[in-house]
Amino acid sequence: MAVTETLYLVDGKPLTNGRNFGRAAGTAGQANGLNNMLPPISMIERIEIVRGPASSLYGGNALGGVINIITKKATKEWTGSFNVEYLTPDSSNKIGDNKLATNVFAQGPLIDNLLALQLNASHTKKDGGGVRPNPTATNPNATSVVNGTEAKGVGGKLILTPNDENDISAEYKYSEKKTILAEGVAETISNTTPYTKDIYTLTHDGRYGNLTMSTYYQAEETKKEGTTSNLDVIETNNVLNHQSTYALGEHILTFGGQYKTEEFKDPSQPLTKKVDRWLGAIFAEGEWSVLDDLLVTTGLRYNDDELFGGHLSPRLYGVYHLTDNWTLKGGVTTGYSQPTVSAATDGWFNNYGQGAWLGNSNLNPEESVNYEVGLHYEDKNLGLTSSAVLFQTDYKNKIVPNRICTGAANCTYNGANRNFINKYENVADAQMKGIELATSYDILENLQSGISYTYTTSEVKDGVFNKGTPQEIDLSGKTLNKTPKHMFNLTLDYQPTSKWNLWGQFNYRGKSTDYLSFDHSTDVQSETPAYHTSDLGVVYKATKDLSFKAGVYNVANKQITNADYGITLDGRRYNIAMNLKF
């Protein structure tokens, strides 16, 4: 699954609001955008991962699973931490740029056993000046200088604990991301105005015997200022969410609902200047202890929204402990994901680098049926865990980009030349399937290893782009976007003493397709070639409160540029960091 199909949460609240802005805002849900929204590392207590589709509880953005970042709870005394990290490219790496990141976190009581305060701040600056190929229709050897970026954020949270059963919190977060122009780049409103985000959250958590409850209201505004206030681009999202969990003997019931409103205003759009909608959902899930060794989970979610109406998403999953070491897992889960309101609007475009993505009012929500069966082995005495998982996902109306033109000489939209133009389309019927193998093993008490391999195939069963036009093309038999057939990862972690930790990792990613398009009559897809990277690092714990780390990423200096393949893989980079707790 793509990163856009994995739901990222912080304390159970999604980070994927603001998706209509696109990647430029750093809020779209892609990896780069998420980096600007994650809490400082010093705030994080642990990370919980839910593998596989989780749409019945979390909705359509969780088709690929859930990553929930749990932040630290309020403490009875003042504590904090400071972290600084510096990343610099190797002299032979002409793509990368220097990056400096700092963050600080502090928390403690204002009134003992009643009111606590948490504060955090972060700042990241990446220099510009790197040179990347940027071919045009008239000059295939053209290059461009890469601009830098600066991101900063602050946040505060008040936690009221009137008794052991209730926590009430009020939180505010502000973040800002702006471009730092490289030398020689002309200054314009579009490349100098920062994107800002304000998030206000009220939360109540209750614990009443066998019943736990969590309710939050979140208001979010993402904005890019125009030359005047009436030209501001603004997205607002308001979410009211409730979830309760009840322990019924050996069974666990979870139920709740969500209501959300979205509004996106962009005066620069050629047709519609404002789009909005409401979305609602109710859900229920049960974990049933059928036998001592058999746990069955059933789930059902009903989604409704202003544009696409209602839809039911059921789930059935089982876990059977064959022996103390062997476990069989498997089930069927359905997925349902509505397009963003901008993607479902004709003529609406989002800038993406030097290209544009166009909306399409004929888009339908994406549906999927996901099958999984896996065999898992664990022996704590040996320090060994292994698993083999077979999976298959059948898509209906899979949402993909159709590249309708490439090259600035041929691509013009809203009065500007574009390097490419993509349009959101549905693929009527597609399938993805494969196998995932994973093993972790304690070679020695102080030496751990991990290895994983994933084989994936995908195929469009039924799909036509540009139907009824001279560019009509049948995509049947083609692969889905960005789906490598082979992925392999190897990690080693060695702790020679209590103060030193050494680690290394090797990653291989097979070739994958980049987009579906009618640009190429013989092969409608371009390919990203196979590549591999290796990373090495060391961590030194000087005291219980002070630690240092250093690393070398992409040791072999493997570089792929967008001139060849439409992506950029950065070269060798060096990293140093310090963390201080107080």
Automatic annotation (TrEMBL):
It is a multi-pass membrane protein. Residues 5-66 form the TonB-dependent receptor plug domain. InterPro entries: Beta-barrel_TonB, Beta-barrel_TonB_sf, Plug_dom, Plug_dom_sf, TonB-dep_rcpt-like. Residues 135-147 have a biased composition (Polar residues). It is found in: Cell outer membrane. GO terms for biological process: siderophore transmembrane transport. Residues 134-555 form the TonB-dependent receptor-like beta-barrel domain. One of its GO terms (molecular function) is siderophore uptake transmembrane transporter activity. Residues 124-148 are annotated as: Disordered. GO terms for cellular component: cell outer membrane. Keywords: Cell outer membrane, Ion transport, Membrane, Receptor, Signal, TonB box, Transmembrane, Transmembrane beta strand, Transport. Its main location: membrane. Belongs to the TonB-dependent receptor family. This is TonB-dependent receptor.
